TrEMBL record:
<protein>
    <recommendedName>
        <fullName>DUF4440 domain-containing protein</fullName>
    </recommendedName>
</protein>
<feature type="domain" description="DUF4440">
    <location>
        <begin position="47"/>
        <end position="153"/>
    </location>
</feature>
<feature type="signal peptide">
    <location>
        <begin position="1"/>
        <end position="17"/>
    </location>
</feature>
<dbReference type="InterPro" id="IPR032710">
    <property type="entry name" value="NTF2-like_dom_sf"/>
</dbReference>
<dbReference type="InterPro" id="IPR027843">
    <property type="entry name" value="DUF4440"/>
</dbReference>
<dbReference type="Pfam" id="PF14534">
    <property type="entry name" value="DUF4440"/>
</dbReference>
<keyword id="KW-0732">Signal</keyword>
Amino acid sequence: MKEFTTMRRLHISFALAAYMSVTANLPAVNAQAKTQKSTTETEVVLSSARQFVKEFNAHNVDKLLSMYAPKAEIIQRDGSRQIGTKEIRGSFTTYFEQNPEAQIAVRLESVKELTPNLALEEGTVTLFDDGNTASYVSSYILLHSKVEGMWKIAVSKVTEDEILDRQNALDQLAWMEGEWIDEGATSSIYWNCQRSEDGNYLLRSFDIRFADGRVAKGTQRIGWDPVQSRIRSWAFDTSGGFAEATWSQVGEVWVNKSTGYQPDGTAVSATNYVIPIRGDRYLLRSVERIAGNEKADDVEAVVVRRGPKPAK
């Protein structure tokens, strides 16, 4: 009975933990950028992009400035500009002073050699002002030019940007709406997710049905925390257990770490990776699963949508 109770507790904590997240390790650069042709020069530009992320995340202004041409321009979407390394230095210095934990993640979409001395880079950059929570996403174009045989950034232009707030933050999770199921050998977990009437929350319920006939149920509320400027969630099961978490997204993957307690005061926690496979299913990988002092094996499950996606 003790073994069953422990496994049941871990399975419930697995359900509570699903989609609850905390800080993800920020990626450097997605190396799957599409290149017009594979050349040594293109690889140098790709390497430069990786180096930029490294130096930005280290807040190394001098090394960042060394990557720009002397008369480089940064053009924001509103038309404002920083011209020359002096103005660019001031911009970086002020930003890092105001945001001492700031980090970025870059996804390269393409690198094209226009001429032997010019290359065009396109991609998206996600800004984490506090080091953890995505606060800003921008599409960009960089024009690289050769200066004394070295590739330098000549022009950096933001083509589209998005400030993450309550509404568009939850919109990122809209794909979760509807009914989902994870069927296992000893139990099945059913999820139902709907947007609240006021549009400010995602409301989820889960139903765990064990092979011996036992049932465990719970609810979860997901919303935007305006104080922490991030998505947070709170989950409760019918036996009296609860858990809470923050959410972060890296690329298409949600990385989740949840903490909570069972009714008897036993602490439970898990780290989860939610990896979309296609529109009607995703892979849920749960690791570091702990209940009290007992550690459970890592698990994976393919969660499948039940029925059509809800109409908007």
